[in-house]
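Here is one chain, start to finish.
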Amino acid sequence: MTSPNNLEITGNLMLHPLPELLVEIMQARLDGSLRLAHQNNKTIVYVKAGEVVFAVSNQRRHRIFEMLLEAAAVTKQQLVEIPEFTNDFALAKALQEKEIFPASLIKTIFTQQIEAILRDAIGWPEGVWTFSPLARIKDDIHFKIDLPSLLVDYARSLQKEVVIRRFKSFREAFGRKSTPPAQINLLPQEAFLLSRFESNFQTIEEIKTLSGLSDLDTLQKIYVLWLAGFLFRQNWDAAFDERRLTALVSAKFELKKQAPPPVVKAPEPAPVAPETKPEATPEEENPEELTLEKYLKQVEAAETHYQLLDIPHKATTAEIKQAYFGLAKRFHPDLFHKQVDAKMQSRIQNAFSEIAHAYETLRHKESRETYDFKLRKILQELEKLEKLGIKPEPAAFDTQKTLTEASEIFDHGFNLLMEEDFEQALPFLARAVHLAPDVGRYHAYYGKVLSVDKNQRFKAEAELQTAIKLETDNPAHRIMLAEFFLQYNLVKRAEGELNRLLAIFPDNKEAKALLDSLPNK
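Its structure:
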């Protein structure tokens, strides 16, 4: 199963499917590339320290220009004016230079491309794979991919009979990880089964007895929890055995040449002819022009993801993409940062985070079905109005944003904050505060991310003080405020805040330790 140099490893996707390979690579924190082939389809997945950072495919539908055409985000005429539009990186550079897309939106497009390639390859039932620690991507190419969510979607969609074949015997053992992924929302039965696990390893037979579930249900839930990153696995047919892992991890490689992708050559696309139909006038394209202010009011008043994107609730995936890219091209925050004041820029940033969240939810079948289930009553009313030919006004529905939506947005922003991606976290946390202004936790972490920018220092303090007022019995907010004071070398104010905290919560060990650590006390 290994090549002559004993470092390149090959195998069969029927024995070791891509999701399981990615889990092994992730847990071993490997660097390199995973080449995959299924019939005429070829894909390469690049990993750094176990994380997927890039992927390429020879399938035309996975090319950036095809994705943008499908979403109606660019025209054929715009493409033919770019000499190398079939090269993803050349196209991205040209789109940015021509100010068709800002850099941040181009980054999002690449991330969506990589996830689409992975989602496709994850479903391959057979084929061959080769892992090489020698073929690596350039250091400056690194995209953040939500791999656990992709793997969970795959595991939940598998038929139970297929899941059974992924286990060698009931003697396989699983143990709970101490640091599970934060971004995965488990289903009730999955969460219940996870609660049955202890720190030590347990066999499937032991887990089944504790869970009270059927054999099939137990195996499927275990498979979901393992692929999602909640569990370790022992005594199974791993693709990377200990000997090979030791060789891969201990080996040191020096890249002699770093060449940009694509490594996989895609078939040459057919020539794209310019549009023969005369260009429509702005009045023909949009009788009532959507100005920036109208767009912001539309987003701020919207009660559903469909209203955010101004699409019917039965819109196709192509229509969802077209709506999102159409709005992103015209109203992305990067297009206005030199033209508007800070207040307006904040509105634009919040609006974009809303439509981006709506797009991410609606473009995937599983997340869209979950969202539609939550909104079934509103959607039934929308359908009735649409049948009557009436376009419902946002005000026709409850203007109070749901706490569920605010919670989802906050969770996303919180995860970005924990990854120290402060710029991306800011609009999500700000939106959570806007949607649920009475939740102290949202204000606290919004203040925390604001504190990174010294120009936002006073606003950050105000948000932290608001969190304390809203949740006076939560010592964590006062500790965050004390840490904020220390961050700006306001030792006396930090000391005063900690003393106030200890007057209310005299046994708070964290506050005592922080107080004892203060300089010149």
